[in-house]
Write a structure and sequence with these properties.
mainly alpha
Length: 366
Amino acid sequence: MYKHVVFFLLLFAFEYSGFGQMDRRWYYLALSEVQSGKIEIAQGRLKDSLLTDPGFAEAWMLLGNIYYNKAQYDTSSEMYERSIHIKPLPEAYKYLGHCYFRMDQCLKASAMYDKYLSYSMDGGISNLAGICYLREKNYVKAKEYFVQALLISDTFHVAHLNLGYIQFSFEDYVSASYHYRKRLEYEPDDKMAMNGLAKSLEKLGKLSESLDVYRRLLQRSDSFSKAPILSSMARLYRNSNNPRLALESYISAENLDPENYSYTLEKAMCYLDLSEYDEALNYFQLYQQERPEDGRVNLPLARVYRYKGDKNLCKFYLDKATVSNPEMAIVWFEMGEWHLRHGKKKDALPFFEKAHFIDPSFVSPI
């Protein structure tokens, strides 16, 4: 980093400094000290000399770089601002943008990157500007900069990763999967791209392809990261009508992350899918002990008791479901079915009508 700064500033010193006005050998000494790693000496020399010669933009910029490499971003940004005030050095805009970026001042950072890009088309800086807008949730503007990065160099493939994220947020899963695939062409082990591609393929209904990508991701992940991947795979197995494999995946995920009680609920749902009602009931009750406020268990518990032939407990949990999940059409529809099964056709009709009102795909059987 220091050698790069020294080389750049040495060129600027010869081209712009106007040494005839004042003896600035101290600047060359500071450059040499930075190059040889004598950073503290160079810093002191620059600070002392700038007190008597404050109009030297390149020196302020070199001092800014010294502070930047010490992660003193407030101070380094002040040095860069002084440099720019004297002379609009393109690199000073870039480094000032880096300071703001490090301080999470994304709008200021993107403004500085814009200034730099007006002097030099740089794919890396275009990508950073895009990230700034991404952090501000300005996805349209972010997309412009990521596309610009690829136009500058189509091999600047990290922009594909960011574009994949944006297209996914736009619910354009075809484009998202395209960009994630492009990223993986250059970086086959990019776990973020694999995860994004798997999710995009799932949204497109390509469950088998999505599972293949998750398997690749699983092989490249550490133990802690594997649990959510296994959970995603389990969800896909359930959606593919393969509850046995889903159950196995949830059990594996739970072994890696035993404090996550959601796996208890998911295992219960798998046992319900498998018509193993005693096991399902056991895990639903375990989950209720840990999360008594979670109303998601009410409807599946009603189904367990329905299949076990206990109409009273089935009705009890359906009643609870209408309180905990009144926005779910299926809750009201199954309440209507309960009344219909027990010869209460007249009482069933309002429940079917309410389900249809919430979701017109639910049609009353009477």
